[in-house]
């Protein structure tokens, strides 16, 4: 509640812009008043907020009682004020015509101004003040009574009109506006006093020693006071769900993959994944290609990515490395490149391949990565040095040349997981996904057979969105194909699950957001984030 403080000296006039404390002035005026005080009259130049603050402060101590009176006032617009001063448009037209004894229609605007000529002429005709003779306006009335001006002058004085039709007319002509006026009727309350008593907020040792505490006036608690809203930060829902995903992954022994690079070669984004070069996903319609530089180098050692991966693995190495880890042999990228080409063009590793002429140039085109599976692929090819059970995940941005709508963006986040182990089955993947989403509070899952060039079998994962009232796709998954894993040098009995989920979809389900553009992109309203109770309660 404003003004709920101890007594403060009442300044004669507050510095401009600062609210004044009118408390003492209200008490003073009431002391001599024999009728209830009308604040509009008593404090003509105080703002409503100042008055209300003082009244609330006094009323909460029963020193005054007050009533709020609302009323509406008519205010003249600048045009109406001009009419009050100079006469109405129709008056000005008649006046000009009368003075000159006649004005050609064409010259009226020059005499009285275009606006007045237009509006005033019609009314002057209707009032039979002027008439047309040929193309000349001539006066009819000798004297006229400017009713519009008189009406507005009276409105200016009384701030009202008594006729509803007149009011509508004046509003339509934009001559008046309605203003709401709030006044207060104030009376002495049961605990009225000339001055506010000193209110103590603390019981001090001195008061106890002197015995003053017995007569001291303690300020009552104000349980109605609302705290000022704090401009504290809020976690974005995507960040919250991302944190939850990471938590779940780490709890299940996953190692994070280094995903800092948004740009990949076609090789890591497509070819190494056994995506044929004529696949529609590699079309300009679906993928953003980089024009400068346009081409990547063929795959080779990548010390930077290697160092990032080493660091991420460091924590979990003890759990997952084989005790007798062999010395890493240098990777033979020429062989890998040749095997990727072979499996596409001629087949191999038990596959008949796609049998098309494979182009090295297409493979080296640079793209904005369309999925984080590009990174998973790179991480998996490293696993060939020491094939072993391993779990990797990443959560980062991907880019697709999509048209944007309520559920699609050209830029979004993918949550990706890869599980390598001996003896994996599809049923295990389904169970894994159910557990995984269960931990996020999404219980209802459906699986639908799907197709990816790099997995077989493949499954789309659907979750039910209560807000949208329908099933929405939240992920894609499958078991990586030998055509992808074997050219890397991974053994046939090491099976690998992969899944990619959008971060946005589960977030939409969880936070009941129906338009993805409320979550990400240039249309995000910070109010949505700051005001979302679930966003402010952070458990992670
Ligand atoms: N890359 C797939 C997801 C996926 C990852 C791994 C295996 C299967 C599917 C996508 O973008 O939708």
Automatic annotation (TrEMBL):
Primary location group: cytoplasm
Taxonomy, superkingdom: Eukaryota
A matching Pfam family: PheRS_DBD3
Entries under SUPFAM superfamilies matching the protein: Class II aaRS and biotin synthetases
Keywords per UniProt: Aminoacyl-tRNA synthetase, ATP-binding, Cytoplasm, Ligase, Magnesium, Metal-binding, Nucleotide-binding, Protein biosynthesis
Metal-binding recorded as keyword: yes
Domain Aminoacyl-transfer RNA synthetases class-II family profile: 389-509
GO molecular function annotations of the record: ATP binding; metal ion binding; phenylalanine-tRNA ligase activity; tRNA binding
GO cellular component annotations of the record: cytosol; phenylalanine-tRNA ligase complex
Keyword Aminoacyl-tRNA synthetase found: yes
GO biological process: phenylalanyl-tRNA aminoacylation
Annotated compartments: Cytoplasm
Region annotation Disordered: where it falls in the sequence: 292-330
EC number: 6.1.1.20
Protein family per UniProt: Belongs to the class-II aminoacyl-tRNA synthetase family. Phe-tRNA synthetase alpha subunit type 2 subfamily.
NCBIfam families: pheS
Official protein name in the record: phenylalanine--tRNA ligase
Species, as recorded: Lineolata rhizophorae
């Amino acid at each position: 509640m404003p003004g709920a403080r101890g007594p403060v000296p009442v300044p004669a006039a507050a510095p401009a812009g600062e609210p004044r404390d009118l408390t003492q002035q209200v008490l003073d005026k009431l002391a001599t008043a024999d009728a209830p005080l009308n604040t509009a009259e008593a404090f003509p130049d105080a703002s409503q907020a100042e008055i209300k603050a003082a009244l609330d402060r006094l009323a909460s101590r029963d020193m005054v009682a007050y009533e709020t009176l609302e009323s509406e006032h008519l205010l003249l617009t600048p045009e109406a004020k001009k009419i009050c001063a100079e006469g109405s448009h129709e008056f000005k037209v008649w006046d000009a015509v009368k003075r000159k004894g006649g004005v050609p229609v064409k010259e009226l605007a020059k005499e009285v101004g275009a606006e007045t000529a237009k509006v005033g002429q019609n009314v002057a005709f209707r009032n039979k003040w002027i008439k047309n003779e040929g193309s000349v306006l001539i006066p009819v009335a000798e004297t006229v009574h400017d009713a519009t001006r008189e009406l507005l002058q009276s409105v200016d004085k009384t701030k009202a009109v008594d006729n509803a039709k007149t009011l509508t007319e004046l509003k339509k002509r934009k001559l008046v506006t309605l203003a709401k006026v709030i006044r207060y009727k104030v009376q002495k309350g049961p605990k009225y006093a000339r001055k506010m008593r000193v209110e103590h907020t603390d019981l001090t040792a001195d008061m106890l020693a002197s015995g003053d505490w017995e007569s001291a006036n303690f300020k009552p608690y104000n349980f109605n006071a609302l705290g000022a809203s704090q401009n504290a930060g809020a976690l974005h829902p995507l960040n919250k769900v991302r944190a939850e995903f990471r938590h779940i992954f780490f709890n299940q022994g996953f190692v994070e993959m280094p995903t800092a690079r948004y740009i990949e070669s076609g090789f890591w984004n497509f070819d190494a994944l056994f995506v044929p070069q004529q696949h529609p996903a590699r079309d300009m319609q679906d993928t953003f290609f980089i024009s400068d530089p346009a081409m990547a180098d063929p795959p080779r050692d990548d010390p930077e990515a290697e160092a990032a991966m080493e660091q991420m693995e460091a924590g979990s190495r003890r759990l997952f490395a084989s005790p007798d880890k062999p010395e890493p042999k240098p990777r033979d990228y020429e062989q890998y490149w040749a095997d990727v080409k072979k499996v596409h063009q001629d087949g191999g590793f038990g596959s008949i391949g796609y049998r098309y002429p494979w182009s090295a140039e297409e493979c080296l085109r640079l793209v904005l990565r369309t999925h984080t599976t590009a990174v998973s692929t790179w991480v998996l090819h490293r696993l060939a040095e020491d094939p072993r059970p391993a779990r990797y995940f990443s959560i980062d941005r991907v880019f697709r040349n999509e048209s944007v709508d309520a559920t699609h963006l050209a830029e979004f986040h993918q949550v990706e997981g890869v599980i390598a182990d001996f003896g994996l089955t599809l049923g295990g993947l389904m169970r894994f996904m159910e557990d995984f989403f269960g931990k996020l509070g999404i219980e209802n899952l459906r699986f639908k057979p799907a197709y990816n060039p790099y997995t077989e079998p493949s499954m789309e994962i659907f979750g039910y969105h209560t807000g949208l009232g329908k099933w929405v796709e939240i992920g894609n998954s499958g078991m990586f194909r030998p055509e992808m894993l074997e050219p890397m040098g991974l053994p046939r009995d090491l099976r690998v699950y992969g899944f990619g989920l959008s971060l946005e979809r589960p977030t939409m389900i969880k936070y009941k957001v129906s338009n993805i553009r409320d979550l990400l992109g240039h249309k995000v309203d910070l109010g949505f984030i700051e005001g979302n109770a679930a966003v402010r309660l952070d458990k992670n």
